[in-house]
Structures are given as structure tokens and as C-alpha cells.
């Protein structure tokens, strides 16, 4: 199976633009470092965009939806039919991400990779159906080699569309009942952690539900214990939408398009992307710390410091979208504040 493109090089951070942006931050009328992560974010965007005046006027959001065979193990608080129903809601404009995309003036693309309760053709939804759902990871690999390749390519296709639209930032989101089970299993494999350390409430399980979910994840991990590479871990334990996100993040880094990572599931996909192609890491910014149990461990493994910690656990790119105004403010401060010399303010 040809996964060769996944390993193609990503550009590293432009040292000239990074140094220029750092120098500018040190000249703006504020004590050095006093704007904290807003400074760091603006410097990172200036370096990634190779632009002394970074901008986020054109934000692209792709939400990948897919169903999971492991839902049959009773690991979610909600029925599987919700995935397909939410695809219709995304398109109809009533979902959280629909509202956020409108409020931001961002482009929202919805990609259906396979839902058991298939909403069928919807004009604004890209159909990239791989199968109604992945296989149950307790019994066999979630995806075949061909399905993995299709999912990775679906993510890369979204990035190609974002590049055609001249996007300045790529946000990936997901929707899939039971996908916190798949993402947790993948995270456990990538981080070599037991299920009980990373399993969380997902859509709202109680303590006994989380215990059952952790046992299901342990069965999946035991079933795929021999799997060693991150790509195989993604194929055996992940999901269509998780693999699409991994493909999208790798393709975005290769296309020099900065990425804003959302919550728990997207961060598991991001860690898989970085394990497959370490050059991806430079292109990732992190929006928020999800309420989901395992998110902090994933962020730590990526040495990521997210902008927000609001107790969000919705997914569908909502946390990343909520952080865009903050990144826009970071750019405005970087671009428009007066320097000490311009304002006639004394330096330390
Ligand atoms: O992004 C997160 O951090 C997050 C945390 C918990 C749940 N979710 C969303 O909830 C769904 C998965 O939850 P579950 O309980 O069905 O595995 C899926 O559609 C995700 O978008 C998302
Ligand atoms: C209603 C609903 C909306 C969601 N959006 C992302 N995950 C979700 C899970 C549920 C259950």
C-alpha cells in the first residue's frame, strides 16, 4: 500500500521570520513577555506564514464524521444514530460549529466518511464514504489497509481545498459516536499507557460507564498488542475520521499551512501524525485543554501549551473555533501596537 507521501518532508520554522517577530515583540510598548501566550502565538504565526504581519482573515474548518464498530460494546452515552443526524445538523446550520464558523466568517466543510444512519446526499456535505463504520477494534483491525489510505487521502483532499481557497489556518474537527474509545485506545498505544489512565466520560458516561469503557479498551489493546508502528496503531485502533485528521495534519504541514488543533480526539490524531512524520509538530498550534480525561497526557507528549481551558468536551472543532478570536487578537497586537520609539515611551 502506498503511504509514501506521509513521510515527505515538512518545512521547518523560518528562523529569519521568527527572529524578526521576536525582535518586534521586544520593541512593543509593554514589559517584555507581558502578553504571555498571545506573544508566542503571534511569533509562531509570523514564522509559519513567513509574514511580518501575520493574519487570520481566511480560516478553513473541516469536520470529519464517521461511525465506529466499537459502539456495539456500549461505550457511549448516546446512540450511534446521532453521528448521521449531526451531519445533517452541521449542514443545516444548527450545530455549535455551524454557529461558530458563521460568527468567525470561516469556511466550514463537512465530510461524511461513513455513518450507519446515513443522511444521504446533502448538497453542502462532501461524501467520501469508506464504509458504514469501522470494525469493532475488540475483534479486529478498525480499518483495512485500503480503508486507511482512503481516510488519510480524504484528509489530504480537505487541505488541498483549503490551500486552493488560500486559507491562512486549517482547523480539523470530528464527529463520531464512540470515537473517544477509539482515540483513547490509540492514545494508550502511542503513549504506552493503560486504559484506566486515559479513559474518560466522552459524551457523559458515569464512573461505572468509564470503568466498562476502560475494560473494552484493554481488550482492544490486548487484541492488537503486536502492532508496533504508529501507522499500524492508527489502522488497528483508530477511526475513519481520526485517520482523516492525521492525513490532514500531515498534508497541511507539508503544504506549509498552520493548523489549530481542537480537543481530545483531534490531539490523538495529531500525535499519530507527529509520530509518523515528526516535522508536522512545528505546524501545530493548540487551542484548548479538553475536559476529557486523557487530553492532558496527549498535550504533554506533544509539549503543547493550549490557549484555553474552558472545560469544553464537545469536539466538532468547537474549541479550536472558540480560540480563533484570541489568535486574531494576538495578530492585531503584534501588527498594530506602537513601539517604544514610536510612542516616546521609556524602556527599562
Ligand atoms: O473533543 C473532545 O475533547 C471531546 C471530548 C468528549 C467527547 N467529544 C465528542 O463526543 C463524541 C464522542 O463521545 P463518545 O462518548 O461517543 O465516545 C464525538 O462526536 C466527539 O466529537 C469530544
Ligand atoms: C448531540 C451531540 C453532538 C456532538 N458533537 C460532537 N459530538 C457530539 C455528540 C453528541 C451526542
UniProtKB/TrEMBL annotation:
**What enzyme category does the UniProt record give?**
transferase
What reaction is this protein's catalytic activity?
5,6-dimethylbenzimidazole + nicotinate beta-D-ribonucleotide = alpha-ribazole 5'-phosphate + nicotinate + H(+)
Q: Which residues form the signal peptide?
A: none
Q: Which CDD domains match?
A: DMB-PRT_CobT
User: What are the alphabetically sorted keywords of the record?
Assistant: Cobalamin biosynthesis, Glycosyltransferase, Transferase
Question: Which Pfam families does its entry note?
Answer: DBI_PRT
Metabolic or biological pathway, per its Swiss-Prot or TrEMBL entry: Nucleoside biosynthesis; alpha-ribazole biosynthesis; alpha-ribazole from 5,6-dimethylbenzimidazole: step 1/2
Give yes or no: UniProt keyword Transmembrane.
Answer: no
Write out the catalytic residues in the record: 316
List its EC numbers. 2.4.2.21
Give the molecular function GO annotations: nicotinate-nucleotide-dimethylbenzimidazole phosphoribosyltransferase activity
Q: What family does this chain come from, according to its entry?
A: Belongs to the CobT family.
Q: What does this protein do?
A: Catalyzes the synthesis of alpha-ribazole-5'-phosphate from nicotinate mononucleotide (NAMN) and 5,6-dimethylbenzimidazole (DMB).
PANTHER family assigned: NICOTINATE-NUCLEOTIDE--DIMETHYLBENZIMIDAZOLE PHOSPHORIBOSYLTRANSFERASE
Do you know which HAMAP family this protein is assigned to? CobT
Q: What is this protein called?
A: Nicotinate-nucleotide--dimethylbenzimidazole phosphoribosyltransferase
